[in-house]
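Q: For a teaching handout, I want to show students what a protein-ligand complex looks like in token form. Below are the inputs, and the small molecule is 1-deoxymannojirimycin. Please produce the holo structure.
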Amino acid sequence: MYPPSRKDFISLTLSDPHSHNYNNGKHRRQSCWRKWKQLSRLQRSLILFLLALLLILGLLSYPSITKPWRGMSEKEAWMEVRLKNIPAGVVKPRLGAGAGEAPAPVAEPRGPNIPILAKPPSKKKHFLNRRGPPSLQKSGNVSDTIVEEKQAQEVVQEDEGEQEGKEKKIVSWRGAMIEADQATEPPPSANEKEGAAPPAPVNPADTVPLEVSTGTIDRLEAVREAFRHAWKGYKDYAWGHDELKPISKSFGEWFGLGLTLIDSLDTMWILGLKEEFAEARNWVEKELTFDKNVDVNLFETTIRVLGGLLSTYHLTGDDLFLEKAKDLGSRLMPAFKTPSKIPFSDVNIGKGTAHPPRWTSDSTLAEVTSIQLEFRELSHLTQDPQYQEVVNEVMRLVHKLPGKHDGLVPMFINTNSGQFTHKGIFTLGARADSYYEYLLKQWIQGGKTEEALLEDYLQAIEGVKKHLVRETGPSRLTFVGELSHNRFNAKMDHLVCFLPGTLALGVHNGLPEDHMELAVQLMETCHQMYKQMETGLSPEIAHFNLQAGDGGDVVVKPADRHNLLRPETVESLFYMYRFTKDSKYRDWGWEILQSFNKYTKVSGGGYTSINNVRDPVNPGPRDKMESFFLGETLKYFYLLFSDNSELLSLDKYVFNTEAHPLPIWPSPPK
Ligand code: DMJ
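A: Here is the structure, written as tokens, with 1-deoxymannojirimycin included.
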């Protein structure tokens, strides 16, 4: 028999499986802990990281484990992106977003029709974007909060829908929603919701047949599709109001005149969108009234509303539009009752009163000299000379006014003295642009008989060449800069891109050939203003590099990086193609349309202006679709891609500065 020993006891104890496990495990844990403590901090971190990684990989390999987690994430963070519904690479969640912050999307090449993702704007932004008198500064019938709540509800509803096997919408970052174009049934229109009568039949003869030519048909159809998408947003969320706010799915008022609807009438007619046109006509007939106590801007109302009504009258022959145009024209007349006969900027069309802006008695030069085509046409149609008399008088006054610089005009004119003010600044951009455009176009409208207009136009183009045209250092791009008290500023507004088209139109009407050379060069520059941006869309203002070397030609300042869906470059591409038949102009236009679709198209309908053309990941939607996107930009795209040169022949029609075609008057017999 062996005396018990410590060792034996231990051996015995070891024979008990439970004791063995416990004691040995404890021993091992203690020694593991010692070893762990002996490791360096780096070694410990590495081991922990590897363990965490293994755990995550293990979890992810079990769909039954990840599914409920994914569902919860969709509801709580609104960040799930269903990649299977999006062409490869449209949106990916970005790794490494901060706590509590939904990941921002990472953009990769997208298909042409994929709507952008967007963050609903804040209330403050809405307010800042509003224009017009406070009484009209409504921003839709739903507050931002309600909009956001609605979006949240839609997300939740969609999530429930998915559980029932119905995949409709794609929920994206920060609560915004995107959806596959083909995925949803359109919601009922405003008319349908209110149980309105079906659209009235279109009265007049169908003068613009649908285009069926080969080759360009896809592009034409793409423009129609873009229009339908823009119109859908307007119809669903802004019907009868001035502008669509496509992100918040609401509307903004400027004058309260249905601006977008009226600006779009002739575009719909030209694109052959008969149903849409008929619905809009119905609204004009039943709802549009100018008998309202509202201050409107004379220029904007003339070019968009009066111009839109007159051109629609000409295209359709429907008297409704002429009657409305007459009513509006007579209500705008008080603007001309000033000491100088230079009109005030604002008119109250209900009260019959007019006034300048609150801070000055000046009017903007382009505004008082770019209403002539419309007022002259109104006189022509009504045989009432009062309209053309007041606007012709403005042109006579400006024609003989001292203070021009080789035909270039200052940006302001005083309504009391009739003199130029703020002299010394000369630009082809904002506040002066359409003065030059309307010199030529009035001359064309009037059958090329009014010599003073031609004289002023030719002199101005010489002034432009002498003082404002320069070339960039790196690639010798020709651009039109500005003159500020004899100092040249290499800055060009996108607005100036109307100029190549206007120059080409002049040459088509017999003006000097060298205007066409300048037009070709400027057209290239306007194209580069799009092409050199990461989104393929032009900034509002470009600065040009005059230094030779390897630097870029186009410089964009942070405050100028926005794009408002403006038409000028597309407008000029249309003229250049019509007159040269060089297909590169169509290709450039096609690239621009694709960029609009890629970065400004909004789910549910509409296109939005954006904040930053240099950031394709987050172009920063501004939540506004300007009426000129439908009135001008899409119309010029359509005309650019159309093979039918007789569609609004430039020998029969002259386009106002808002792209509304008005007839060229027959020349008087010589
Ligand atoms: C339009 O209202 C007109 O084209 C106007 O002449 C300039 N601004 C916008 C478009 O950019």
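A: Two things your students might notice: The pocket of 1-deoxymannojirimycin is lined by residues 434, 495, 566-567, 628, 632, 657-658 (CB under 6 Å). The mean pLDDT is 79.
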